[in-house]
Amino acid sequence: MFLCATAGFGKTFLLTEWRSTVNGSQVPLVWLSLDESDNDVFRFWEYIIAALQGLESGLGESIRNALTAVQPPEIMASVALLINDIAARLPNDFGLVLEDYHLIKTPAIHNSLNLLLERMPPQMHLIITSRAEPPLALSRLRVRGQMLEIRSADLRFTRAEIAEFLLQSRNLSLTPTQIEQLEVRTEGWIAGLQLLALSLRERSDPDKFITTFTTSPRLIVDYLVEEVLVQLPQELQTFLVQTSILQRMSGDLCNAVTSRSDGAARLSELEHRNMFIVPLDDEHYWYRYHHLFADVLRQNLLLTEPGSSTRLHLLASQWCSSQNLIEEALYHAFQGHHYEQAVSIIARTPVRCSKKAVQAPCCAGLKNFQRV
Questions:
Q1: How would residue 365 be classed by pLDDT, with cut points 50, 70 and 90?
Q2: pLDDT digits 0-9 by tens, 2-25
């Protein structure tokens, strides 16, 4: 089983519930929570053996001793011996949970775990949780139908689940309209719902709060900054906050805004990391950020690069205009208060803005401009 979703989607909670209510004692589980210190390949396998010994004392003991020796053996040979020992000494079904595998960066660990995936005894079930797609040979398992995948889309709360959650956990009974607004705002993200619920309990007028808030409550901002943003490399943080002004983005548009040449690779990396990014087409050319995450990024932009949004909007407007994306070009021109740029775009546009287009948010302020 492979659970892959970003922070706050309830991966660990789901496994814990499954362990206690569904699995029960039918299939014993051993659980290894990983952290950055587990990136030594010998220590990694030593810990796995120690966990498995909770099911069968003495399992892999000679291999474990060898791994801690001054000159440990070749790791692939040791993993192969461990697989044989598991097959011989654990004949009944069991599961091994590797939690937070995204923290593992060592290629030797990935390679050796691939060997386990390839030769794993049929009675063994490996459950991996991760915030990002790991560099493991998972495609082979998909083709064979040997892997159950659960991703962010599977973990998002539906409208009915949001209503039930708020009623049972926070004793908040909201109207269908309020529930719909929360669904749109949070996109079913459970951590966001929990934090929003805490904020709602402090409000005397929930309807006004839900309807009028345009930026994320402080609790959500703090959570996303501490659990997501600051965990990323600085270059990626900069890319995120600079592109947060975009309603939708492509690699080329990101390059225009950030003055870089790796926009497509950055977007692919963010998607790989499950970083609150949503593909908008089958080709994965256009993306957008999760609404709450985009709010947090824009607030971070105001704090880290005050005044830069004006420049970034101009760059976005110029690129969109060059691609004949007129409404988006006008949107960014007005958001950045570049009114001369907006007039210039209108002057070059050989079409008449429709009444519907003029009333759209991206054309706000254009009611006095019409061009045939």
A1: very low
A2: 888 877 777 877 777 776 655 545
Asked if residues 221 and 227 have their Cβ atoms less than 8 Å apart, the reply is: no
* φ/ψ bin of 126: left (φ > 0), alpha (ψ from -120 to 50), beta (otherwise): beta
Q: Which fold has domain 2-155?
A: Rossmann fold (3.40.50)
| pLDDT: which is higher, 207 or 280 | 280
Beta strands 2-4 and 124-130, pairing class: parallel
Joined tokens for residue 274? 């499950």
pLDDT tens column, 156-200: 888 888 888 878 766 777 788 888 888 887 778 887 777 676 666
- If phi > 0 it is left, if psi is from -120 to 50 it is alpha, else beta; for residue 365 that is left
Please check whether residue 26 is in contact with residue 293, taking contact to mean a CB–CB distance below 8 angstroms: no
Residue 234 sits at the vertex; the CA angle it makes with 314 and 43, to the nearest 5 degrees, is 155
227-363 has the same fold as 2-155: no
Residue type for 122, please? Answer: P
Class of residue 199 by CB neighbours under 10 A (exposed 0-12, middle 13-18, buried 19+): middle
Residue 19: DSSP 8-state: I
Task: Write the single-letter amino acid at 260.
Answer: R
CATH architecture of 227-363: Orthogonal Bundle (1.10)
Domain ranges of the chain: 2-155, 159-213, 227-363
Has this prediction a pTM greater than 0.85?
no
**DSSP class of residue 352?**
P
Could you read off the pLDDT of 287-317 as tens digits, one per residue? Answer: 988 877 888 888 889 888 888 999 999 999 9
d(CA 366, CA 344): 13
